[in-house]
Give the backbone structure.
Amino acid sequence: MTWRLAFAAGLLALSQCRPAAPPPRRHLVEIRQMAFVPEVLTVAPGDTVVWVNRDFLSHTSTSASWDTKPLLEGKTGSTVAGAAGEVSYHCQFHPTMVGRMIVVQAK
């Protein structure tokens, strides 16, 4: 195969490739004044969500999919977002503390 033919085949292959998905991102949710801030977070599959406790009380971020376990003041817990959909979460110690993660597939 000549180099011109190989070059043309390479260009054709590149033109048929889909754009690469954006790299995973890191999102921060602060726990402060007995609330998750932000309360609603939109992420993509594969993104990492980190909760940091800014309260003097212990808190958790708990859903059917994850549980950070108790986070003391200044401590963090994290999860990696799964498939597209919505996930509600709460603090095991303070049931009125609720949050929602919306996982949206990148286009």
The helical segments are 3-15. The chain has one domain: 25-103.
